[in-house]
Amino acid sequence: DDDIFSSAFCENSEKLINVHLFALAAKYYSLSNLGVCTPLEDVLEALKGDNEGATGIKPDEFMNNKKSHEVQVMSELVANIANYCGIKQVIDIGSGKGYLSSFLSMQYNLKVYGIDSSSSNTNGARERNRKLKKHWRAYQSRATENLKSQSLEKANDRPEESDIKCKTIKELLYNANSLQNQDQVIIHDVVPSCGFTEMATPAPSTESEADSVTWTQSHETKLSEEVLAILNVLPADAAEDFSSSHYNCGELCEEEKVQRKMTSLKAKARKSSESNLYFPLTSCITAETELSDLITDLEDCMMVGLHTCGDLAANTLRIFTAKPEIKAVCSVGCCYHLLSEQFENQEECHDQAWGFPMCQYLKDKGWCCGRNARMSACLALERVAVGQMLPTESLFYRAVLQVIIEEIYGVTKSDRHVGKTFSKSSSFIDYVRRSLKKLELDDSKLPDSCIMDYYEKYKHRMNELEAFNMLKVVLAPCIEVLILLDRLCYLKEQENIAWSGLVKLFDPVKSPRCYAVIALKNQSC
């Protein structure tokens, strides 16, 4: 309890005296231990989604392993929420290079607006999406050609059963949804589902039809897999249109029937590819942003954000609660150090929409984290735990640089940033000079010998710095808990929310900011 954990610090000096107890306390108050998260499997089950997602092409063919993992998991959840709410429009806030937006559009046939403040990001996303669509169409074309050749081979092998095959294919198309639930298969070179939605499946009307389906499942499993695979590239109405078409199976030879079927499927696949819509937009989103000014055809939709930076995560939730058109939200935040805090500088600015705190409970208490704590919240405990150690040398360089600019230049605060200078530097001297230029400080007054004197003076304290940063890593999950629970409590305070929760989406080793804030509005709202 709190009394036990408080003994980790000296009562008089308030210094840390029991590191082990400190680590236990940090673990006790971490999100994974508090029992407030909703398992992803439970959410998908409640939405009646398929936890295995669509079969076929994987996003790692177009992006790195980390981004592929994030996009695949989050897109499945978003698609299930959209389907549950009966909506087809998604607004991706802070869409960046458009990885999530493109995949939601092409894989799940959703109309996606990706909004990012950087024009270079949106322009890059637009070009990347254009190239991605070319790859996507190539996969579709290859799939249909493979199916055509395989079906013709089967036709030559069993010509006497052509009438049964024709009837079976039509029934497979008509009953695609039930068969797809029975046999989820991955066919190489076949594209995944692009929005195949549920469809009423009538029972066979005669005994002979039922026998035909049974014969198909036992003797033509591969054919059914191929038909289902090509169905996966079509929109929902493809199966309906095809099943209502009337072919005279007895009057056409098998090759002609296959050619007609493939021509129809190709047309549907092309139409589906062209209907996949993704629109990158450039705009800076704030709590006061009117989405209807940016999106002229705004309709019932949901908002998503994959690693929305700083205040953008908080503003996403505010827009969601304020706009009746937005029926759901799924937001994964990051960059906690960039959050604005209402009580950090004790400034009176009641009209500003602060990044922290959001909920009334913490506002009433005047709660403040501070930049150092928020910086700590960005650290990745799980990565450190599996051996991905902290960049101690670069942290040491930065710490000594701080001493230099304070003692030599008298600068204690600056709006400029050093950035990723360490990776570009050949030595500590090079690092200092590059950093001073970025900070617009005159490095001519600082000889190399003086720079190295500072390095030698503090070199023996590098282990001390590493130990200090390890303590920050241990504490990181506790600070993240405070920020995430603040956002969840904000949603719980709203009257128009039907359900809200925290869900662990990603593997924290692959993606340390792995928790999503999810909410659905009341149906009447």
UniProtKB/TrEMBL annotation:
<dbReference type="Pfam" id="PF13679">
    <property type="entry name" value="Methyltransf_32"/>
</dbReference>
<protein>
    <submittedName>
        <fullName>MET25 protein</fullName>
    </submittedName>
</protein>
<dbReference type="InterPro" id="IPR029063">
    <property type="entry name" value="SAM-dependent_MTases_sf"/>
</dbReference>
<dbReference type="InterPro" id="IPR052220">
    <property type="entry name" value="METTL25"/>
</dbReference>
<feature type="domain" description="Methyltransferase">
    <location>
        <begin position="66"/>
        <end position="342"/>
    </location>
</feature>
<dbReference type="InterPro" id="IPR025714">
    <property type="entry name" value="Methyltranfer_dom"/>
</dbReference>
